[in-house]
Structure formats: C-alpha cells, structure tokens
Amino acid sequence: MQDDNLPIWLPRLAVQGGTRFLQIADALQAAVANGSLAPGDRLPPQRQLAAQLGVDLTTITRAYDEARRRHLLEGRGARGTYVAAPKVELNPILDLSMNTPPPPDGVDFDDMLKQGLSQVLMRADTELLMAYHLGGGSDSDRKAAAQWLEPMFGHLDPEELVVCPGAQAAIAALILALTQPGDVILAEPLSYPGLLAAASQFGRRIIAVPADEQGMLPEMLEQACRQHKPGLVYLNPTLQNPTAITMAESRRLALASTAKRCNVRIVEDDPYWLLADAPPPPIATFAPQQVVYISTLSKCLTPGLRVAFVLIRNRHERERFLVALRSFALMVAPLTAALTTQWILDGSAAQLMEGVRKEARLRHRMARDILAGRYSGAGDGLHVWLELPGYWSCAQLAHAAESEGIAVTPAQAFATGSASVNAIRISLGSIKDRARLRAGLQRLSHLLARRPESFSAAPSS
C-alpha cells in the first residue's frame, strides 16, 4: 500500500502504467524538467521511499540506477543521492545521418539484455562461448535464423542458412565468392555505401542501371547484363536505402525473371522488410536458385549484435561463400550469436522489433508534421529521402546543417553513377531522445526555408 505522504514530485504508481521502476524514473525526469526538483535537491533514502510506495527495495534501486543513466541523479556517498546539475554538451551534434533503430518506448532494453545473457550463461557451455568456431552458425543458430525469416519465406531448411557477423561482412564475402577482380556489379543509381566501399576495395566495378519510382527497370537490367556480363546484381527492394522506395511485387517478379534469363545472381539486401507495412514477398521467393538473400538484425533490433542471416540455396555457392567469409571474419562472436538465438526463441526479439516498429512510425509522423510538404517518406522504416529546393545543393545543405550542429547524409554518398540527384537522407533513429529529434528536424526545416546566400557559412559553388 502506498503512503499518503509521498514526495510531491512522485505520482501514485498505476497498475497499468508499465514497469514500476520506469514509472518512478519517468516521474523523476518530469519533476526535473518542470522544476519540482532542482539540481542539488536531496532524494529520500531508498528504503524510506520503498516503504512509502509499498514496493521492494530492488525496485527503487533500479529506478535510481535508471535515473543516473539518464544523468538525472548523482550519488554523494554517505550523504545520499541528489539531483544532478544539467549535463553540458560542448558539441551537441544532432545526428540525422546514421541509420540505426530508434530506442523503443516501453521496452526495458537493459533488463532484456541482462535476462537474455543470464539465460545464455545458464544453458550454454561457457568454454564454448569463448572458443573458436568454424563459422556459419551452430545448428541452433541456423534454426533460429529459419524462424526469424519465416514471415518472409515460410518454412526454410536451416542447412540453407548461414549466420554472419553483419550484413557488410556478408556482402563482402559474396563479392569475393561470386565475382572476379575487374567484374561488374550492377546496382541502382543510388545504393548502399557499404556496397560501393567493398566493391572498390576488391577491385570490382559498380555500374548503375536506370531506375524509376519503383526501382531498377527490368528492361534496362537485361540490356546491362548483355552489355557488361556482370558477376552480380545488387538490390535493396524494401524501403530502399536511401530513397525509401519499396518495389511492387510485379517489379520484383519482373527482375527475378530477367535474372533467370540472363543467368546472373542477385544479392537481395533486405534489412528493412520486417519494419515495412505489408511489404511484397522478397525477390528470392520468385527465383530461389538465382537470388542470395541477406537479412540483418542491425536495422530492426540493434547494431551491437553484429548478426545477419544469409539464405543461399545453392550448396556449391554456399560453400564458396563460407570459404570467402572465413578469410576475413572467421565467425560471429559466439556470445552474441547465442544471445540472438535466445532472444528469437524466447520471443524477446519479436517484442523488441515491434517496439522499434511503433517508435519508427511515431517518428515518421513527427517528421511529416515538421517537414510538411517536403516529407516524402513511406511512414515506416528508419529514414526519409528529402529532395531539396533548387536554391540548395545537397553539398551546401549538408555543410550548412553541420555548421548548425546537425549531421545529414547528402545524395553523393549513395551515387553509383554520374546521375545528379539533389537530396539528402535523414535518419530518424539515431537520436535517442524524441525531444532532441524534434529540435533537430525543426532546425533543419528552418534551414531549408532559407537561401544559401542568407547563410554566411555556406560555401560558394
């Protein structure tokens, strides 16, 4: 039972209000924001507050720990716990350039991580978790991968799946396994920078195939295949990075048919499928032997796992891929692979992903409201492709934004050919706090409304 004489800043705990320690931490944050608690104010001792609220001491300890993590409190030894002075950021960059999942509201990630690791350590041999492995994932890892990919493909044979240390490693290994130095890789005019970097390092040439509002044009792909005899075709068909375009099913089917006729392999990099609203089936469903499918957890869960799943149905190509992968990345770290498997099998991964989906949609609504007529997002996923007014070039805008403490990514970072596109990509997940994200979007909107000549820091061009 809660004490009637509660501190004025602390509301009564609601049965349906979510995790209790988070309710307390949120109340602390609100009190600091509205001035009910000021820097230097002493908080009640933990045991006293636990008794007043009718909760156990562990709940208060976790609430205070969470408040410290948010830089709201500081401990002063035997003197107690006090409201901290505001944290001063000397370089408060608002990062709208990095495509990472936003922190989901209502999901206690710290607790999920602790619980997951606890289960892994209870069930696994710790010596194996710290040992070398051949790579490709254990039987249980591949079974978890098959379960994760079930929404896209239905039942899969785990033997056709490879567990990799991230999508970038998978792309690099596919380039090494399926192409030769000097080979051509076909891609859309705007494509994932990681592909461009890997191809450049390995001495492969990227050639752009024209695209429209639905993505790569099948007839132009066929023409490019005949002209260049490519080793691979790279596609990112769902919430494409950077344009946020999602290919219609008919376009996917047409591209798969073209790849079959031209006998060319497609690498389907599909990190956002599970975040999209009712996406079409992957291209790999229309040409199973022709398409290698990559699904990373970095965009729908967290980059820190460094885990991606690769579906390669051709056994000979799968073996070549594993050999290439082992040449620079022997294995996924066993501990993170085991944690990923644990989360998938116990449902934690699905819970976290659903939280990311909800948070991403909320942030898209925020971007749409603030950017008004300039917003052209799909309402889901992690980023917005913003075409600029004619008086700004993307290089000018990126430089001006940086001068005002905002990081964005200009179109040239994604360009595979000579086509000139005047746009920037805005990532909505990398700023943890919604209020800071809103501030960044508002500052960007004000900047877009001005002309470069009114901004003294903008370079002449």
TrEMBL record:
The lineage of its organism: Bacteria, Pseudomonadati, Pseudomonadota, Betaproteobacteria, Burkholderiales. Pfam families: Aminotran_1_2 (PF00155), GntR (PF00392). The keyword Flavoprotein does not apply. GO terms for molecular function: transaminase activity. Keywords: Aminotransferase, DNA-binding, Pyridoxal phosphate, Transcription, Transcription regulation, Transferase. Residues 18-86 form the HTH gntR-type domain. The keyword Zinc-finger does not apply. In the C-terminal section; belongs to the class-I pyridoxal-phosphate-dependent aminotransferase family. This is PLP-dependent aminotransferase family protein. It comes from the Bacteria.
